Amino acid sequence: MEKGGEAGEYHSKDFEWEFVKNLVENDPSLSHHLQEPHLVDSSSSFSSSVSKPWQDFHSRHSSGKFFKERRYLLKEFPELVLCGENTKLLEVGCGNGSTVLPVLRGSKNITVYACDCSSEALVRTKENINRAIATVDNFHSFTCDFSTSAFPNWLACHHCRHNKHCHHSGESDDTSLNEHCIGGVDFVTLLFTLSAVPKERMPRAIKECFAVLKPGGLLLFRDYGLYDMTMLRFEPEKCIGFREYVRSDGTLSYFFCLDTVKRLFTDAGFIEVELENCCVKAVNRRKNKNMYRIWVHGKFQKPFLK
C-alpha cells in the first residue's frame, strides 16, 4: 500500500499475524525484542515526565509536517457516523487533531471533547480544525494526563457541565444530583494513545475512561501491535521493559498483544465487543522493501445498568 492510498485499504487483512511472528522469532538480530530486559523498574525514571516530551514534540513540529488525517477512521468505527443527535465523544490524546478532524467532518450530530497531556498539541488541533473547517461550535478541548489525573467532573454528566458545585464524591448537599453522575459520553476514542503511557499506569488510565462513559457506551481502541515494524526498528538500548521502549526524544511506546489488551479492558469492567490484529503490508517502492504494519483494533462496551 502506497502512502496516500484509499481509506478502504487501511483496514484490509494482507497477512496473518503469525507470519510476522515467525519471521521475528527466527531472526537472531531481533532476539532482543523477545526477552524481558534485566532492569528493575526500568520505566519508572520516565514515568514522571510523560507530558514534557510530548509538549516538546509538538513545539518542535508546530509547522504541521507530521499531521496526517486518519481517513480510515470512520470506516473502522462507523458508529461515529451513524450516531444520533446529541451524541458526545471524548477523544483521549488528541495530538494534532488527526482523529478529531475526520469525526467533525463525518457527523454534525456529535459533540467532541478532546484532551491531551500537551497544551501545545491542543493549539495544533485548533489550528488544523480552523484551517480545514473554519468555525465549529461542537468542539471543546482541555489539557489532561489521564494516566495521572481524573477527567474533570463536568465531563461526567449534563448537570455537572453546568453546575460547578456538583461532585461525584458525594460532597453536594443534593444527593439526588450525584445519583445521576453515572458517566456522560457515548464514545471514548483511544487511538495510539495508551501505548505512550507507562505500562504500570495503563490500568488506572483505562478506568478513567470507563468512569466517564455512559452505561452502554463504547470505547474505540486502536494502537501498535506486537511485532509491528516500528517495534522492530528499536535498538536494544531503547528497550526499558518487556515490549516497552523509549524514543530518542523521551516519548514512550508499548506494543500490544491481543491477550494484554483484553485483560486490561476487561479488568477495568469493560465487555469485549471486537478485538483483532489489523495487518497491512506497505510497500516501499524506492527500496523495493515490504513493511509489515500491525495494529490492534478493539471495541469495548461499558455494561448497562441492571
Task: Describe the structure in your own words.
It is an enzyme of class 2 (transferase). GO terms for molecular function: RNA methyltransferase activity; S-adenosylmethionine-dependent methyltransferase activity. With 306 residues, this protein is of the alpha/beta class. It has a domain at 7-27 and 45-49 and 146-164 and 176-301: Rossmann fold, CATH 3.40.50. The chain is built from 12 helices and 10 strands. The protein has helices at residues 17-25, 44-47, 51-60, 73-76, 79-82, 100-106, 119-132, 158-162, 175-178, 202-212, 229-232, 258-267; strands at residues 87-92, 110-116, 139-143, 185-191, 213-224, 239-241, 244-246, 252-254, 271-284, 289-301. The longest helix is centred in the middle third of the chain and has 14 residues, at 119-132. Residues 1-11, 40-44 and 160-182 have low confidence and may be disordered.
In short:
GO terms for molecular function: RNA methyltransferase activity; S-adenosylmethionine-dependent methyltransferase activity. The protein is of the alpha/beta class. The chain has helices at residues 17-25, 44-47, 51-60, 73-76, 79-82, 100-106, 119-132, 158-162, 175-178, 202-212, 229-232, 258-267, and strands at 87-92, 110-116, 139-143, 185-191, 213-224, 239-241, 244-246, 252-254, 271-284, 289-301.
